[in-house]
Amino acid sequence: MTGAANTNGIDDGLGTLQTPCLLLDRRKLAANLAGMQTQVSRHGVAFRPHLKTAKSIDVARMAMTSPSGPATVSTLKEAEYFAERGVTDLTYAVGIAPNKLDRVGEIRRRWKADLAVVLDSLVQAEAVAAWSRASGDRLPVFIEVDPDGHRSGVKPGNAELLRGIGERLAQGATLRGVLLHAGESYGLSDPEALAQAAEGERKAALQAAETLRAAGFECPVVSVGSTPTARHARHLDGITEVRAGVYMFGDLVQAGIGSCAVEDICVSVLATVIGHQPEKGWIITDAGWMAMSRDRGTASQAVDQGYGIVCDRLGHAYADVIVAQANQEHGVLAVRKGSSAALPDLPVGSLVRILPNHACATAAQYDRYHVIDGEGCASTVWERINGW
Where is the D-serine dehydratase-like domain positioned along the sequence (predicted)? Predict the structure, then answer.
């Protein structure tokens, strides 16, 4: 659906776009990137931005410290896409499945990429070592360490498993270091608790690295990372690199955590008003959960933002107006329960922007960004990829 002309008389280019579509504010993006780079540089460690949220070479080139990286990816399709475009210093930060090793090897050979993999079990280590021997390619490997029980990884105190993985990798592959992700930080909001989570992540990383080194294994890289812990770490002594991804865009979950402000969020979904249900206090748009994703990450936070905060076409948030309900292709705008705010006057054809709960999930619904500069014209398109 094509949006109506801008009744405010501002030639912003949005009225010609088919909705729903994904907008990216370049100025806010640049500010978010600079803020994290300053934070990491303050600690004197390397930064390896995670490209899983952006999945775009244009964003990557703004985020990375050089055209070749370093960078982190979450799918091998991302690794192929970025390697083809000259990003060759890559960590594939999802536990490796043995049936993906040939594809990893092809990326390394075809684009001469230094692509490292991650694992946390003896079975994976044996498979990687066997593949490395058979191919003649000593694959660089990180051992994933679990700092907080959130997801995958070896417990930092499990010295036997750490040593066992190191021994098996030594039979053909190369141990590059340990890699951690403090995922439980996403459930926090108190700055002190977030600082403690960052310190817990750091201590777990050092404990695992020291265990490996004491057993005679080199462990040159000690890699940690999540947007909340990267934002709130007080020091990173002993850490060699930090990874983070969603900080680039920000979203309502990160705002609820305290990792960004709502005003920092630089991606939004442009939607068109297609109807009204005045007796229910609803405005209907063409952006349902297919456009926003089903992510309801703020539902467990202090402020439930529904499926997103509603803004005018210039990006200014309406007071207490959210996407309260969503069907596949219909979004229901309503005033937050308990608020005395009023619905804005939005005739059929009006354009609104919706700030997402989870930038990664919302962006995954699209194959391009329509790039704007603040309140300026949306005249540039940046590609993005999806899939595995």
Answer: 266-373
